[in-house]
Amino acid sequence: MKVVVAHNRYREAQPSGENTIVDLEIDQLAAAGVEVLPFLRSSDEIATMSPAAKALLPISPIYAPKAQRDLEELIRAHRPDVLHLHNPYPLISPWIVRTAHRFGLPVLQTVHNYRQVCASGLYFRDGGICHDCRGRTLPLPAVRHRCYRGSAAQSALMATALTVHRPTWRSVDGYLALTDAIKDHLIGYGIAPERITVKPNAIPDPGPPAPLGTGFLFFSGRLSEEKGVRLLLDAWQRHPDGANGPLRVAGDGDLRPLVESVAAARGDVEFLGRLDRPGIAAALSATAVVLATPTWHDVLPTVVLEALAAGRPVLGTNLGGVPYEVGDAGWVVPPEVDALAAAFPVAAAEAAAKAPLARLRYERTFHPDVVTKQQLDIYTALASSRT
After folding, report:
1. To pair with 299 at 20 to 30 A between CA atoms, which of 168, 183, 315, 335?
2. Of the ranges 27-41, 54-68, 315-329, which one carries the lowest mean pLDDT score?
3. Is 330 left (phi over 0), alpha (psi -120 to 50) or beta?
């Protein structure tokens, strides 16, 4: 089986030396015997482009000529069985679907966000959930609110791309939806349910869980409003100092000063700063419950997968993919201060009982052996459908 994996990476958003979910998936496929043909672009490349190449960037979300030429060469040279597309923006373009189909190559896309409809891909604007462009032929609110990179001009181009490529997305042979919520999003967009398979990401097995620690851990690469940092701290402060054990917060970003302020004022809040991979593992070992409190429809927060793999139950909000991830291995509540505050003592009391369920959920649903087999079966079915 030969598979082209196409993805536009945002390497600048990754901690130094850390693999992305797509990188991990490529490694998992290769280990399973798939001949992976990487077709990867990085937004970091833009800074080193020639003036002529940069001049074409504004149209790349609609049509990226170099990417199409490069894909044609790869297909002719290697004769792959499937094209697996992840993120096409901005250097690949959804036009890659049309190019693949011209050569009779079936296309599978993993949907990581809501960008079939939403220019930012987040369904989140100005501190709250936004669906203003859903159901519109032309997503003009995205232009008015400068939803793509804070630019009216770039938002207009992205809005145009979303309109031009509506038939492109509807021609994709199969979709991998990371959660049931993404499947519902695609059905609402007009994709037939039988072309959608719910298949989450997998993360490597860290090994047997350490004994359960104490208190709560919130860790994020970005301490920002949509991650629920303010919600979390407001809810925590509804309880007397020390009532629910320690709260450890890791990460960095715009709301770091708020976290530092609360940590300075309370003895039960500790700010850990940005952690590397060993630091995250140590923090997971020290905790009893992991927190995932987004106030937007976060598609499939990796922090939840890491918590489950480490045998830690999760207390989260009932938005996006969090309920799907948590299942019976934790608790989900509305993204409201009172609801979250009421859940802290419940989670603290039930953590030990939920911990074995957390590891079991990881092993049954998010382990690489389980997820990769599911993916290989989908590749085989797609390749067969085109022969």
Report:
1. 168
2. 54-68
3. left
Instruction: Answer whether 330's CB lies under 8 Å from 347's CB.
Output: yes
What phi and psi values does residue 177 have, to the nearest 5 degrees?
A: -95, 125
Alpha-helix runs per DSSP H in the chain? 21-31, 51-55, 65-78, 95-102, 140-144, 152-164, 166-170, 180-189, 229-236, 256-265, 277-286, 302-309, 322-326, 337-361, 368-385
> What is the C-alpha to C-alpha distance for residues 209 and 310, in angstroms, rounded to an integer?
5
Q: What 3-state class would DSSP assign to 27?
A: helix
Predicted pLDDT of residue 180: 92
pLDDT digits (tens, 9 = 90+) for 137-183: 889 999 999 998 889 988 998 999 999 999 999 999 999 999 999 99
Alpha helices for 59-131 (secondary structure H): 65-78, 95-102
pLDDT at 18 over 70: no
**Structural domains present in the chain:** 2-112+173-202+368-385 (3.40.50.2000), 216-365 (3.40.50.2000)
Residue 34 is which amino acid?
V
Specify the pLDDT at position 252.
Answer: 95
Establish how many alpha carbons lie within 13 A of residue 336's alpha carbon, considering only the half-sphere containing its beta carbon.
Answer: 5
CA end-to-end span of the chain, whole Å?
14
Which residues are CB-neighbours of 202 under 8 A, at least 6 positions away? Answer: 24, 25, 28, 305, 366, 367, 368, 370, 371, 372
Is residue 43 within 8 Å of 91, Cβ to Cβ?
Answer: yes
pTM for the predicted model, two decimal places: 0.90
DSSP annotation of 207: -
